[in-house]
Amino acid sequence: MTQPRQGSGPSGLERYYVLTGGRSAPGGAATLDVATLLVTRSVPEPGGQPEHDAILRWCRDPLSVAELGAHLRLPFNILAVLVADLLGAGRVEARDPIAGTGDPGPDLALLEEVLSGLQRL
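Now predict its structure.
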């Protein structure tokens, strides 16, 4: 049986287990998808978890969960747990990407007129 090397840190699945405290899904009402935009609401605190600090630094400007995962090289489910921690603490804000575009979407009255016209055919 081989002994682990001194000074070697966790890697792979062990690392993810340590990062999330054993959680595999975000707790609370956090609903994130890859297009959700994240924005920092506070600065990294001394002694904080390095991954939380990295998220806060990357999200100074709005950044999607997908982009953040690529920068941090973390799988979505692990990143979702970390982001949920920050959301719960009020340290980041999650924004709907559609709401940030200024596009109100399709005109409901126009769609109803089109539907009415199609039904008359």
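The chain is about 40% helix and 10% strand.
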